[in-house]
Amino acid sequence: MRAGASPDWTLFALIANRAVMSDKQQQSSKGKTATSRDDRLKAALKANMAKRKAQARARTAGDDKKEKE
After folding, report:
1. Is 52 part of any domain?
2. pLDDT single digits (tens) 12-30
3. What domain range includes position 48?
């Protein structure tokens, strides 16, 4: 500790450094969460598109049958 530094300032510096470290840890976990969220959204979108395509094919097949009659 420097000769001119007060104990209060030293305590503040220690607390401030801990806050910075915890912020970094939270950001890295948010990055993982965001990635897994993106993966879930991509999977949900893919499933939704497949479902809609199947519905469109079923409608088209139904229309073809009506036209033949």
Report:
1. yes
2. 666 666 655 455 555 556 6
3. 35-69
